[in-house]
Amino acid sequence: MKWNRILLAASLVLGVNAWAQAPAASDWPTKPVRWVVPFPPGGAMDAIARALGDKAGKALGQSFVIENKAGAGGNIGADLVAKAPADGHTIMITSIGMATNKPLYGKLSYDPVKDFAPVSLLAVVPNVLVTNATQPNVKTVADLVTAARKAPGQLSYASAGNGTSIHLAGELFTSLTGTDMLHVPYKGSGPAVADLLGGQVNYMFDSITSARSHLQSGKLRALAVTTAKRSPALPNVPTMAEAGVAGYELSPWFAVFAPAGTPKPVIDKLNRALRDAMKQPDVAARFESMGVEAVGSSPEQLASHLARESARWGKLITERGIRSD
């Protein structure tokens, strides 16, 4: 009986200590939040995280520290967050790669579903099909389809790398139009756009954020946006479906995830802070300047969105034999 009392007392002490060490959800965050961006600085993903992190940090009383962990198509950063403590102090912004990396890479060191807790779908940044404005004979999507069918495999399109939304946009286009175009992958959007401007490649499904300044200067010509609706940033540019490619829709999205097991009250508090940040006038103006369309969602809506996107793009990646290398 004596040992039973000692063990009971010890377990009670340990339980009290564990409770004391684990901050209540109402107290979160108790220290700066580490916001991992699994790609280099300078892109739309990085800009979105910095804009929202600044506002959410001020609202919650703790800074959001942006940490760029680039490499392996976002897998290095994702692996880091998957293995982080599930206390809400480490989160990740990610994109369509969350739905595509598993079929692209075959084996991952993390599970995109089991190892993460969805927080919120943040935004969509449409891709836009562009060509060098010096090309006189291609001014519409129909012109491109005609040209591609006349010269199978001879026209090229650039991407920011295998498996990126820019690459998948091209694969979806050739699949739905029955055309054959040469995919030329680059290490990032910057060098791909440079070669497009120089005439080394013919087309690109670039992000509006990246292409906008070149469209405004007249160096690039926009043929269509990849989203289901026209972009407010390019209101006079038709959607791909409007331009004649029935069934075409690709909406590059950005979302926030935390490690699996993060307490639901913490997830909900973070969700509210991020959605409130997106409503701030200066954030809305910043998004508009980048062609970013704010969305905002519940954690459950993001989970459903990820499931749909994983099924859709997994099918295309398998059918087209797309690999990460």
Description:
- By secondary structure, this protein is of the alpha/beta class.
- Helices cover 44% and strands 18% of the residues.
- The protein is built from eleven helices and eleven strands.
- β6 (156-159), α6 (165-177) and β7 form a beta-alpha-beta unit.
- The longest helix has 22 residues, at 299-320.
- The radius of gyration is 23 Å and the shape is globular.
- The termini are far apart.
- Strand residues, percent: 15-25%
Number of β-strand runs: 11
Shape: globular
The CATH class of the largest domain: Alpha Beta
- Main pleated sheet: 6 strands, mixed
Q: What is the tally of helical segments?
A: 11
Distance between the termini: 65 Å
The percent of residues in helical segments reads: 40-55%
Strand order of the largest sheet: 2-1-3-10-4-11
| CATH fold assignment of the largest domain | D-Maltodextrin-Binding Protein, domain 2
Helix-strand makeup class? alpha/beta
Alpha carbon gyration radius = 23 Å
Order of helices and strands: HEHEHEHEEHEHEHEHEEHHEH
Descriptive keywords:
325 residues, D-Maltodextrin-Binding Protein, domain 2, 2 domains, five-stranded mixed beta sheet, globular
Secondary-structure blueprint:
Elements lengths: L1 H20 L11 E5 L6 H17 L3 E5 L6 H8 L7 E5 L2 H9 L10 E9 L2 E6 L8 H10 L5 E4 L5 H13 L4 E4 L3 H10 L4 E5 H10 L2 E6 L27 E7 L4 H15 L2 H10 L2 E2 L4 H22 L5
Parallel strand pairs: 1-2, 1-3, 6-7, 6-8
Antiparallel strand pairs: 3-10, 4-10, 4-11, 5-8, 5-9
Helix pairs in contact: 2-9, 2-10, 4-11, 6-11
Characterize this entry briefly:
This protein is an alpha/beta fold and 325 residues long. The chain has eleven helices and eleven strands. Helix 2 crosses helix 9 and helix 4 (97-105) runs parallel beside helix 11 (299-320).
